[in-house]
Specification:
Elements lengths: L4 E4 L3 H13 L5 E4 L22 H4 L4 H8 L2 E3 L4 E5 L4 E4 L4 E3 L2 E4 L3 E3 L18 H10 L5 E5 L3 H10 L5 E6 L11 H14 L2 E4 L3 E6 L9 E5 L4 E4 L1 E4 L3 E3 L2 H5 L8 E3 L10 E3 L4 E3 L7 H15 L13 E3 L6 E4 L11 E7 L2 E7 L5 E8 L5 H5 L8
């Protein structure tokens, strides 16, 4: 029997690559290695599951056994990969077992960034990055009246909105002076903040958290006390960190693969070592590391074909991102040409019902946009104007 295609990781990137590969190749052995139970679920659903009253079990769409049967794969669940030998084309598992591979796909995902917090309760700070994390978070909400959210970006705002459905008062803290500062122009941030505040979300901006301590005795402000960078304090019952994700690159780096922010790959998702590929949140494609679903799906489609003998470069059209904040529907299409240095001017129009902001260059070409409230109806029309992220 020929050596298998081995996919390390069972998130959206891993399983969708397996599905796409099987569309083209029904016969080559396929192995999926997962450090967790390998069940299939949608990670983006974790930040709006409370409003739907979803348990971690309810979020599981298909167990590993069903996925294995669906894609004709052998699944190694609860298996940690200790090393990759690119010369011998073998994986070394933490229990000492080795696995050969014809082609290896690293779909490792990303880890939550942990802030260096001091205090007696610093270890109690939670983050949600997978089903087990979500289960712990949902259980910890029992009896909770307030939650401090560290991070005013996309995930922080989504969790803040979601917590309102549980009758919990969320307070978003961020060193930036406005929410979604990396994705929205100032007018967009102000629009979003006003509507989230009207729904019950609190904001403490322009500050960072330095300490998390338990309170002594009964404290009406909460079970925990946060000490902020401006010297003030904030009482809360629970702290959830949502300050961002760091691609999992340690395994690739140890194997000698080129690593920048993510695992460096070309347009065919190939790493610096032959027959080794990377997809999803851990991959950096032509300098772009995009932790969104649509780029991930485009990667999976391209790599599935490539692994089956049909070399296919990945392409990204303009891919608007929907922010799951029902209190203020929001769609963003961040500019990718020139990244943060993109030259352009935000043109903003709107009223109390909605706000449209389009970043245009000096020729009038749309480079990106942000739509809030009723203006989200313009998503498709504006997406057609924006150049491809990766043509």
């Amino acid at each position: 029997m020929s050596a298998p295609v081995v996919i390390v990781g069972s998130g959206l990137a891993g399983w969708n690559t397996a599905r796409e590969f099987r569309r083209h190749d029904k016969d080559t052995p396929l192995v999926v290695v997962s450090r967790d139970g390998a069940g299939f679920y949608s990670k983006p659903m974790l930040s709006n599951a409370l409003a739907a009253n979803k348990s971690a079990q309810a979020l599981l769409m298909k167990p590993a056994e069903k996925m294995a049967a669906e894609v004709g794969a052998t699944v190694l669940a609860q298996a940690e990969v200790a090393a990759v030998d690119t010369a011998a084309r073998t994986l070394v598992l933490a229990d000492g077992r080795t696995r050969p591979w014809r082609d290896l796909v690293l779909a490792l995902g990303a880890d939550p960034i942990r802030l260096p917090l001091a205090g007696t309760a610093a270890d109690s700070v939670l983050s949600v990055n997978d089903l087990d994390d979500y289960a712990r978070f949902a259980a910890a909400l029992e009896g909770v009246r307030s939650v401090a959210l560290l991070g005013g970006g996309l995930i922080g705002c989504e969790f803040a909105n979601d917590l309102l459905a549980r009758g919990v008062r969320p307070v978003v803290l961020d060193l930036a002076d406005r929410p979604l500062a990396r994705l929205l122009p100032e007018a967009g941030s102000a629009f979003l903040r006003a509507r989230l505040e009207a729904a019950g979300v609190g904001f403490r901006l322009g500050v960072s958290v330095q300490r998390v301590d338990t309170t002594s005795g009964a404290d009406a402000a909460g079970r925990l006390r946060l000490t902020l960078s401006d010297g003030s304090t904030l009482g809360t019952d629970l702290v959830l960190s949502a300050v961002g994700l760091a691609p999992r690159t340690a395994l690739a780096r140890a194997a000698g693969l080129a690593v920048n922010r993510g695992i460096v790959v070309d347009r065919r998702l190939a790493t610096s070592a032959p027959h080794v590929h990377a997809v999803g949140d851990c991959a950096e494609v032509d300098g772009l590391n995009l932790p969104y679903v649509m780029p991930l799906m485009a990667q999976a489609r391209a790599l599935g074909a490539t692994l089956a003998g049909h070399p296919t470069p990945v392409a990204y059209p303009a891919m608007p991102v929907t922010v799951k904040t029902p209190a203020c529907p929001t769609v963003v299409c961040p500019p990718q040409t020139g990244a943060a240095g993109t030259q352009g001017v935000w043109q903003v129009t709107g009223d109390d019902a909605g706000l449209e902001a389009v970043l245009r260059d000096d020729t009038g070409r749309a480079l990106g946009f942000a739509l809030l409230g009723q203006a989200t109806a313009r998503k498709q029309a504006l997406a057609a104007e924006v150049p491809a992220w990766l043509g």
